[in-house]
Each structure stands twice: as structure tokens, then as C-alpha cells.
Specification:
Layout: H1 2-25, H2 33-45
Length: 72
């Protein structure tokens, strides 16, 4: 009987674990979930709204990017 009890415990733990994983990773089903997904993708594809962290520098390293480095 102990072999059957061990098998039953393993099956119960497996089913409970599978249900937990399934519930954690299922897609949301509320009516705004598709709109939220679309907005998240648009935010990822869009440009940042604030200034960039580092300014672009030209090749001469002078920090000016307007071509005023004498045409080097």
C-alpha cells in the first residue's frame, strides 16, 4: 500500500504544481488586455519622450556636431 500512496502523492503534487504554473503564465482575458498589449508595443517602438542620456558626438571628439570642426 505504501507504493500506491507514494504514487498518489506524486500525482497530486504534480497536478497542483501544473495548475500553479498554468495560472501564473496564462494570458490576461479582461476586455482591455488587447488594448494594453498594443499600447505596450507602441511604447516599446516609440522614441523616448525625454532628452537622450548622452549627446551624439562627431568623429573629432570636440563635442560639436554642427560641422564647425574645420572640415576634418
Amino acid at each position: 500500500m505504501s507504493g500506491l500512496a507514494f504514487l498518489l502523492i506524486v500525482v497530486v503534487v504534480t497536478v497542483v504544481g501544473s495548475l500553479f504554473v498554468w495560472l501564473r503564465h496564462r494570458k490576461p482575458t479582461h476586455f482591455m488586455s488587447s488594448v494594453d498589449d498594443f499600447q505596450r508595443e507602441m511604447d516599446a517602438l516609440g522614441r523616448p519622450s525625454g532628452p537622450t542620456k548622452g549627446a551624439r558626438r562627431n568623429r573629432s571628439g570636440s563635442g560639436r556636431s554642427d560641422g564647425a570642426d574645420g572640415g576634418r
